[in-house]
Amino acid sequence: VFNREVTGINVIDWIVWSRSENWFLGRYCQAFEIAYYNLAQNLIAKFVTIIPSLSWKILLPLLSEQEGEDHSKQNTKLRQTYQNSVRYSAFIMFPIIIYFFVSSYELIVILYGQAFAPVHAVFQVLCLGALFSCIAQPGSAAIYATGRQKFILKFGAILAIINIIMNFILIPSYGAFGASICYTSVTTMGVLGGFWFLKKEMNLCPPWLSILKIGMYALFSGMLLFWALRQPAEWFQLHHSIIEFGHNLSDGIIKKVY
């Protein structure tokens, strides 16, 4: 039974999460739209998904062991592990994702050149989806660890249908940007559905207050970065001169003293 469910999940994963948007982009759009979308997805995969994926691999055996010790809904140890892992994932990933969102234009231009500047809008939409998916991996590990992966199969089938319908509607008109909206929308629905299932069936609730506090901190620091990136070059040269002057002054004082 487990193998059949996992096989079905892999098929749905190929439709929903493995860039099925490329097929629609290739059929309805020009080649550069495919390049834009895949470039943005590759950046997300390299910089954002590594830590959440690693946490899933670590949590699965740990949560399985804790589930084996206590099968009840009131499994305190499993609940604490889940909430702490969500909290740590948000603490690490929220600032990174928001920094990438704010500096998306500069990041794209520096890495790939001015010709790929339009990719930054696609990348920003995918960053919004990454904000949700980065805190969903602990819940996914908990579902697999407790043998409730049938929910992923059933709910994933619904998401696959929604994904295909949205692709038909958005990609022919909006290209890579529409594909990013489809991916982010389906990702968000999947994460919210997973939270609902965890609360209803397993009595696991994310630490919403901690997530909110971390989100506000990350947003504030992102606003500072947004402000700094839009300052004229002379502003940075002035601050560099001030820092250099302070360094030379302190160095001179130390030499006189010693």
3D structure, described in words:
The protein has 258 residues and is mainly alpha-helical. The relative contact order is 0.14. Helices cover 85% and strands 0% of the residues.
Approximate shape: globular
Radius of gyration: 23 Å
Distance between the termini: 77 Å
Q: Roughly what is the average pLDDT, rounded to an integer?
A: 82
User: Quaternary arrangement of the chains shown?
Assistant: single chain
**What level of helicity do the residues show?**
over 70%
- Biggest pleated sheet: none
Provide the low-confidence segments as ranges.
none
Q: Tell me the total number of β-strands.
A: 0
Strand content: under 5%
Keywords summarizing the entry:
11 helices; 0% strand; single chain; mainly alpha; 258 residues; globular
List the helices and strands and how they pair.
Blueprint: H1 2-16, H2 21-28, H3 31-47, H4 50-69, H5 76-102, H6 104-112, H7 119-133, H8 137-145, H9 150-202, H10 208-229, H11 233-257
Kindly summarize this structure in a few lines.
This protein is 85% helix and 0% strand.
